[in-house]
Specification:
Chain A: Its cofactor is [4Fe-4S] cluster. Chain A: This is AmmeMemoRadiSam system radical SAM enzyme. Chain A: Keywords: 4Fe-4S, Carbohydrate metabolism, Glucose metabolism, Iron, Iron-sulfur, Metal-binding, S-adenosyl-L-methionine. Chain A: [4Fe-4S] cluster binds at residues 71, 75, 78. The complex is a heterodimer of chains A (326) and B (88). With 326 residues, chain A is an alpha/beta fold. Chain A has helices spanning 81-84, 99-108, 125-137, 152-159, 174-181, 186-197, 216-230, 255-267; strands at residues 4-6, 14-15, 19-20, 26-29, 32-35, 43-48, 62-67, 113-116, 141-146, 164-168, 201-208, 236-240, 273-276, 286-287, 294-299, 302-306. The longest helix of chain A is centred in the last third of the chain and has 15 residues, at 216-230. Chain B has 88 residues and is mostly helical. Chain B is 59% helix and 6% strand. Chain B has helices at residues 2-9, 13-42, 51-60, 76-79; strands spanning 47-48, 71-73. Chain B starts with a helix and ends in a 9-residue tail after the last helix. The chains are: A alpha/beta (326), B mainly alpha (88). Chain A binds chain B through residues 2-8, 11-16, 18-22, 24, 26-27, 29, 31-40, 74, 87-90, 94, 96, 125-127, 129, 151, 153-154, 178-179, 182-183, and chain B through 40-51, 53-54, 57-58, 61-74, 78-79, 81-82, 86-87.
Chain lengths: 326, 88
């Protein structure tokens, strides 16, 4: 038996011949590890950038979004579980789109960027990396929507070809990570810092689940950590939970919980704190942190008002707003 | 409640054996389910997959034989880290 050790994520799976990693898609055949979903996405959609969510990165632009089967997390509340908790040999729909085809397809659809998203793109790393190089050569952007459960060395290499990320920080509590996702907290914090150090545009999402991770003192600690380690200008998205997959026993997050979390994070010093999954909420829009001017008004995933200057400043007080606006 | 107590008072030794067997079965099922859940949640190091279907899909091009990066052949010390069995 020629076992191999996968070095991609913190699990470091030791995989015997004929077995797969915990992610289900990295398979040991004859002592060689295969990235079995390379060029074989199972989901392809055109989404608005706001759906990722990325609010400070090319707002309002369409992004060609792909995912393959598999995931290295096993969240009880996964919203894409049919995709993420299946292996390549289990899933019905598989498209054939090698990196060259993918770039051409995205271009044909009028997209200037590609999102690696839905499941966790960490597990189709090689496909992301090769596609991202070609996308850059074609003048396109790459966005990486992830839970950040990846080892530092492969992540640093990937950062060279990634332009933006929205990374889930699912809770500021290792116990929550272990019980609800099957992962651990510290590697995610390391990944967030690596993105920041490598200059990738970074936004953070925290899905608030009633009773599990909505404690205000934990939210305060998380916001303070983001401010001190990632910067006060890092956009933070509090997202509303909906009962899903193996977590149907809890109700959707009340609006007041999201409001309180947003206020707590802003009190901790974060300048751009958003509320997601509630259409029409005022916390879905961008305001100048200095004078409160409405800068970008969003309704759902659509932008209904855009008042930033062309170089990304408040039109009233000239305060620069961090982001990639051009 | 009273009729239940009366029934227990009239149990024969074979009834005790049956109840014991049933209890043991329930304990075994509970241990299996807890073990499976824990393996799934903490990462079991590797998973069994249906190799026949996997190979079919590789041969038909539905899946890719692209070699992954970021792996190495396991050293003897690392083999001890592998949890036995694997999760389906």
């Amino acid at each position: 038996m020629r076992e191999v050790v996968c070095e991609l994520c913190p699990r470091k799976c030791v995989i015997p011949e004929g077995g797969a990693g915990d992610c289900r898609v990295r398979v040991n055949i004859g002592g060689k590890l295969l990235a079995s979903t390379y060029g074989r996405p199972s989901a392809m959609h055109i989404d608005p950038m706001e759906k990722k969510p990325l609010y400070h990165f090319h707002p309002g632009s369409p992004v060609f979004s792909i995912a393959t089967a598999g995931c290295n997390l096993h969240c009880l509340n996964c919203q894409n579980w049919q995709l993420s908790q299946s292996g390549g040999e289990e899933i019905e729909e598989i498209f054939n789109a090698d990196p060259v085809d993918l770039i051409a397809l995205a271009r044909d659809q009028g997209c200037e960027s590609i999102a690696y998203t839905y499941s966790d793109p960490v597990i189709f790393y090689e496909y992301v990396y090769d596609s991202s190089i070609l996308a850059h050569e074609a003048g396109m952007q790459n966005v990486f929507i992830t839970a950040g459960y990846i080892n530092t060395e492969p992540l640093r290499r990937l950062c060279k070809v990634i332009d933006a990320t929205n990374t889930d920080l699912k809770a500021f509590d290792d116990g929550f990570y272990r019980k609800t996702t099957g992962a651990t907290l510290q590697p995610v914090l390391d990944a967030l810092m690596t993105f920041r150090e490598e200059g990738v545009w970074l936004e953070v999402t925290n899905l608030l689940i009633p009773t599990l991770n909505d404690d205000l003192s934990m939210i305060r600690r998380m916001a303070k950590w983001i401010r001190s380690e990632l910067g006060e200008g890092t956009p933070l998205h509090f997202s509303r939970f909906h009962p899903m997959y193996r977590m149907r026993n809890l109700p959707p997050t009340p609006g007041e919980t999201l409001d309180r979390a947003r206020q707590e994070a802003m009190d901790a010093g974060l300048k751009y704190v958003y509320i997601g999954n509630i259409s029409g909420h005022k916390g879905n829009s961008t305001y100048c942190p200095v004078d409160g001017t409405l800068l970008i008004k969003r309704e759902g995933f659509m932008i209904s008002e855009y008042n930033l200057t062309s170089d990304g400043r408040c039109p009233t007080c000239n305060e620069p707003v961090p982001g990639v606006w051009q | 409640m009273i009729s239940m107590l009366q029934a227990i008072r009239h149990w024969h030794s074979s009834d005790y054996r049956l109840v014991g067997l049933l209890s043991l079965t329930l304990v075994v099922i509970a241990l299996f389910l807890v073990g499976q859940h824990e393996a799934e949640m903490t990462g079991s190091s590797w998973r069994r997959i249906d190799m026949e279907i996997f190979q079919e899909r590789l041969d038909s091009g539905k899946l890719s034989a692209h070699e992954a990066e970021w792996f190495h052949v396991a050293k003897p010390a690392e083999l001890q880290l592998r949890k036995p069995g694997g999760t389906p």
